[in-house]
Amino acid sequence: MKYNPLLEPYKALVPFLAELLGESCEILLHDISQPKHSVIAIANGFHTGRKVGSPFTDLAIKIMEEKAYVKRDYMANYNGRSKNKNFVSSTFFIKHEGKVIGLLCINRNMDAMTELDLVLQKLKKAYNLEGALDDTDESMDTPVGDILPRMVASEMRAVGVPPERMTREEKGTVIRNLMNAGIHQMKGAVVEIARQLHLSEPTVYRYIKREKGEDK
User: Fold this and answer.
1) CA 101 to chain centre
2) What is the pLDDT of residue 57?
3) Under CATH, to which class is 5-112 assigned?
């Protein structure tokens, strides 16, 4: 099958994108010089039944007639249909010297995505996972050395007063909350608490003893 040789480098993108995006996506490369046999490369053609040598679609013809490619380089995420299947489609305009010579198209079968979603919903119900996720924010890349300062700072923010303006009771509240979380038992905790609350280390120890009921 003859086609524009300028499209040869783009043919390798078809299997590449198919492997990257998976079987739910149909990937096609069109040569616009042959509208009746425009498809020169295709992957996952089972979605629409097309193959190499298949013709332009009605939208491809409309794109060329209306010259949609003049003011843009691509069209993304528009609706497509074929054989009672629903697709989300995107088309990249391949140009040479300002003129379109080919179309690289990606059609994602949304019916397959819907079926997958139904399977996932069933699994969630089967394993009682519905509502298991919440808005908890976990930092996966926080160095261990940063954890203690962050936790102390978090309790201080909860009070809503800068340390230099905190009353004795407010500082006691911060230390009490840190103790309830077991933070005071971490190595270096007293030093960090003292630093952030603008207290001496002996003073922090006195707060801790008072909270434990050891300060008689």
Assistant:
1) 34
2) 82
3) alpha beta
- Rounded Cα gap, residues 58 and 63, in angstroms: 9
> What DSSP assignment string belongs to 9-71?
HHHTHHHHHHHHH-TTEEEEEEETT-GGG-EEEEESGGGTT--TT----HHHHHHHHHTTTSS
Name the stretches of the chain with pLDDT < 50. Answer: 132-144
Torsions phi, psi for 72 (to 5 deg): -145, 160
* HSE-CB for 87 with a 13 A CA cutoff: 21
Half-sphere exposure of 184 (CA within 13 A, CB side): 18
pLDDT in tens, 80-96: 887 778 888 999 999 99
Token pair of 60 as six digits: 């491809």
Q: Locate 182 and state its tokens.
A: 């077991």
What is the domain partition of the chain in residue ranges? 5-112, 146-212
Q: What angle do CA 11, 16, 19 make, to 5 degrees?
A: 140
Between CA 29 and CA 185 the distance in angstroms is 64
pLDDT of residue 61: 77
DSSP class of residue 74? E
